[in-house]
Design goal:
single chain; FAD/NAD(P)-binding domain; five-stranded parallel beta sheet; 25 strands
Length: 409
Amino acid sequence: MYCDVAIVGAGPAGIGAAVALDKAGIKDVVVFEREPRAGGIPRHIHHPTFGLLVFKRPMAGPRFIEKILARCQGVRFEFETSVMGIKPAGFFNIAGPEGIKTVRARHIIIATGAREKPRHPRLVSGLRPQGIMTTGALQKLVYGENLTPFERPVIVGSELVSFSALATLGSAGAKAVAMIEQNPRISAYRPAIGFSALMGTPIHYNSKIVDIGGKDQVEFVTIDGPKGKRRIDCDGVIFSGDFVGETALTRTSHLANDGVSQLPLVDASWVSSDENISVIGNCVHPADMGDQCYLEGLKAGAHVGEKLGGTSREDKGVFVSISHDARIKMLAPGALRMKSGQSVRLDISLHVLSPFTGRIVVLQDGEVIYKKYHRCQPARRIVLRGVGFQQAGFEQESSPLPVIEVKLG
């Protein structure tokens, strides 16, 4: 099987790339999606948190997906199909209803998205009764199957998706008895506190769950906070946020990955260390809203369309990774494509793992090229604007690559 562009993942970013490629006249575009339908996470979110950036009005997730899908009528979708491996020269394998096949594409766009971190990697001890899930699993049950798995759960986390879980519970007639946040303030923006107050759900700051109790169903959790350990009676636990990129495909490939986060490294055009493979959306920077991912997909798809259509130069240059402080969760872009004698100025986005207030410094070969004071909270994107990278010489193959670092403090 052969195609011009293969897109892996039919969430907002993948759909955005498909729309741009269709508009650019690249007709042989195939989107491979492991689920039976397109849409990704927004399919299961029925409150109006989508559409403001793209359509200038709020709408529910399913309606948002319906409207952006209508923009790429010339694109073929292969559902219930998993991409199992990516190799150089555009080769990869798929497993679908017709069995296993080998596919070759002129360009591959990976848009596999992100997922919330469940209980196991958060190292929460205790028994394993029913009633423990992520926000995504909750929304599938409530909106997809019209089921209410519990009546009085606790929510772990205070990101925007945590308040989405609070709204989902309210729509199902349930009420969270507490939100547990390990930091001294919420990760979402401050006005969200008013929503939790409206729903009658207290937020426990500087606290974390240390035990889950219950035999068949969750009966209580134990939290450790400023006043020591205490028990909260509940019938469920929702682990929300703390998103991680769906990187199994990139980590097992030949693509370069970040040494700390294991996220795929891409340049400012979302092109990876293989110039024929792009990686976009929340797979690279977990986790942005659906509108933002769709708009990013449009830009990345347009770049690929120009390249394949011959209206832009190839993605040539030396691929230089950007290293970073271990307290930084992710950088985007995490690499540069530098050409000999070329200076580059661009914005760098980052997320931190824990609250930080102070200067963020960018160095190139030990020289400070950016230094500015920032207030950082987990799950909030911080943008370093206009970082100017200096000229570098690559006249000889043995020329050393620039050493670029981003540090906190």
